[in-house]
Amino acid sequence: MKAVTWQGKRKVSVDSVPDPVLQEDNDAIIEVTSTAICGSDLHLYEVLGPFMDEGDIIGHEPMGRVVEAGPASNLSVGDRVVVPFAIACGSCWMCDRSLYSQCETTQVRDQDSGARLFGYSRLYGSVPGAQAQYLRVPHANFGPVKIGEELPDHRYLFLSDVIPTAWQAVQYAGVGRGDTLAIIGLGPIGQMAARIGRHLGARVFGIDPVPERRAMAARHGVEVFDTTGDTNDHIRELTQGRGPDGVVDAVGMEAHGSPIAKAAHTAVGMLPDAAGRALMEHAGVDRLAALYSSIDLVRRGGTVSLSGVYGGQASPLPMLTLFDKQIQLRMGQANVKAWMDDVLPLVEDPDDPLGTEDLVTHRLPIDQAPEAYEMFQKKTDGCIKVVLDPHA
């Protein structure tokens, strides 16, 4: 089969690799009909190389159709499914508490990490990823979400990651009708978090340096701002001088405006893998501009919700400000299945309240994945969200 494989910093290729096979009774094999490139994939492309191995299949936002089903998978050949990015058993102590991204059955204990993720480095189990024509799905008796036949792929695909991640980010921010919410970063997660905030009745401010991203958010009723020096002051003026009730950092470790950490990222990419891993594990390598801005912007007693991925272990935080402002921080990988009852009806609603019809900017054959990664990282050609067609 064809698959997108990691080959080094800023280098992916489309290669012929062996087809996956069933390994456990509760496995399933799906033929992938759509698979997306996530902003988190850019961390593998740029920063997390020391945890990757040449030839790793990447990607974690798939949907498709079952072509093989283990006897304990609870699936049948022909079922149309969306596959959450985190692999969970559904029955351990953590899963019983809906903390599926912390599943104790699939935790990567040798890395002290949570549940295994598709296509996401040694940190999360080196599981073959979903930017491929076929995908082996472990614990298929729990993970995959069966969906209908009527709607096109792009209405369902983002249940694999984007929509539940954005929903959790807004829930963690603790806002609802009549509240105010700021979203820093209007990539795919930020776009959807902003729309969810609006759907739940909040006044939403969106901040991003890219005009095309701001224009997309504005189409959905979001008040948008560039990342100029006075943006936070302007938003405070619009919130009676307090700042928003909640702020979602949808950027993460590769934020603009962090020159020292950017240099650390470059150093990680130049070092041998073992040294690069040590730097990631023991140094402050995250680019924290978005997080610092979130802490500055949120009102006293408000909540900062992190959905952007951070990877450093010694990144400095302004603890005095956090304590003095009585700020709550919530974060973590999305517990996808925990939110499915909330988001699946919205995806299937004929009115499309989350605007899933207006998110994909590029749908390309899988053979064009290398060009798509470069375009997505550099934000050229108005690129906001790329979906790959493995069988085009």
TrEMBL record:
InterPro entries: ADH-like_C, ADH-like_N, ADH_Zn_CS, GroES-like_sf, NAD(P)-bd_dom_sf. This is Glutathione-dependent formaldehyde dehydrogenase. Its cofactor is Zn(2+). GO terms for molecular function: oxidoreductase activity; zinc ion binding. Pfam families: ADH_N, ADH_zinc_N. Residues 188-254 form the Alcohol dehydrogenase-like C-terminal domain. Keywords: Metal-binding, Oxidoreductase, Zinc. Gene3D superfamilies: Medium-chain alcohol dehydrogenases, catalytic domain, NAD(P)-binding Rossmann-like Domain. It comes from the Bacteria. Belongs to the zinc-containing alcohol dehydrogenase family. Residues 25-144 form the Alcohol dehydrogenase-like N-terminal domain. The keyword Cell inner membrane does not apply. The keyword Nucleotide-binding does not apply.
